[in-house]
Amino acid sequence: MRSEADAAIRVVEGCFAAIAEHDADRLVTYYAEDYVLELPYYKPGEPLVLTGRAVVHAYLVELLAAQHMEITLSGHHWIADERLLIAEYACRGHFLDTREPYQNLYVGYWYLRDGVVARLREYYNPQAPRASAIG
Question: pLDDT tens across 89-126, in order?
Fold first, then answer.
């Protein structure tokens, strides 16, 4: 069981590294073809759900062109029966157009399947300055 949790953490940290490098192409290699990204607090009262690796890739290209993010895992809990990594992480960075700083705290529910992320439900503070770089 521990090796499954360690593998899940490596996948999540690989995602974080690709984000820091603005590499959407590499980032989506960590996602299943039918990957689902759920951002319940995308905007107040306006959740965002994106389905499919190609759709998410297009979103990420736009996001990573607007914002630099360094993400650090601060805690996690592995639920083996569900292949679910519940992760806490912090993001620090800035918006590329204005250099305005960005920071936020997240809790993500990372569901894995066959060594890749099948679904991510991510909660963060939408009230953080310019919490959504797009929209």
Answer: 999 999 999 998 989 999 999 999 999 999 999 998 87
* Residue at token pair 């909660």: 123
Q: Which domains does the chain have, with CATH numbers?
A: 2-124 (3.10.450.50)
In a 10 Å sphere around its CB, with 0-12 CB exposed, 13-18 middle and 19+ buried, how is residue 59 labelled?
A: middle
Write phi, then psi, for 102 (nearest 5 degrees).
-135, 135
Is the distance from CB of 36 to CB of 108 less than 8 angstroms?
no
Rama region for 38: left / alpha / beta (φ>0; ψ in -120 to 50; rest): beta
Q: What are the angstrom distances between the C-alpha of 38 and each of 4, 42, 47, 101?
A: 23, 9, 8, 24
Residues contacting residue 7 through CB under 8 Å, at least 6 positions apart: 115
| 3-state class (DSSP) for residue 52 | coil
- The token pair at 95 is 């918006």
pTM score, whole prediction: 0.90
